[in-house]
Amino acid sequence: MIAVVLALLAAAANAVASVLQRRAARNAPADEAFRIGLMWDLMRRPTWLGGIGALIAGFLLQAAALTSGGLALVQPLLVAELPITMLVGGWMFQVRVTPQTWLAVGALTVGLAGFLVSASPTPGDRLPGPLTWVVSAGVTAGLLACCVAAAIVCGGPARAVLLGVAAGLGFAYTAVLMKRTVEELPADPRTLAGSWSLWAMVAAGLCSLFLLQNALHSGPLVAVQPALTVTDPVASTAYGVAMFGEDIRTGPWVVPELTGMALIAYGSVLLSRYAPLREQAHMAGAHPGAGGQGEEGTRPAPW
């Protein structure tokens, strides 16, 4: 139960972090994409620093949750980050939350609950060996490279979605390394500083953060957040089962598990479809007399 509470608190902290980071990244110059200069620019913005503070809080809460729960339990709960992000973003950007958004939130909530009840995930009973780490790192790096290469070729919302997927996958692997690191705590916390998994976790987290900032810089939050939030728990669950021996129910239980995942995907699609309409209405209300070449045509989308 404590793992569930901590995971939900982590989701709330991550949601606040995403909204604050998007608020800062939307005003960064377009030519800073995929450059370190983007990070230097963002570091000078108080809003972005507040988002990083919330992200660190979410990171610590997630690590605490993983000390008492497995990846297959903790990571799916982070899907709650998506509806919380929409609600916080709607309040911060003064965009009305429509009935379609509530439908999407309901689908996500029911899908998450259905998946967790059906899968009934239990913690794993083993730590991955060296070969498993090498293979998993290679596969993850390959998938990230494909997503980033496709994002560079694409433009508009597609780039934001692809980078959101890449960031979600990166954060999922960061959680895997986090799980490996917290497993060492009970043995001898004094040896933690010399643990390879700790420094690998830091490196993976920083790379994922860089991908996330570029995703938020490339497109609206409603394009990035569903891709990020759904990819992270799905990949983390797969990592947990394959690498740590975590167990989820199979057999007839696969049907309601897939149904839950389908509802999560459906809710994510609804958010992506309807949120741009709310965004356009917001922009028109903010600039009632603006034309296509005026301020409304050039101002970055708030979401």
Automatic annotation (TrEMBL):
The keyword Chloroplast does not apply. Residues 284-303 are annotated as: Disordered. The chain crosses the membrane at residues 48-80, 101-119, 131-153, 160-178, 198-216. Residues 1-17 form the signal peptide. Keywords: Membrane, Signal, Transmembrane, Transmembrane helix. This is DMT family transporter. The keyword Signal applies.
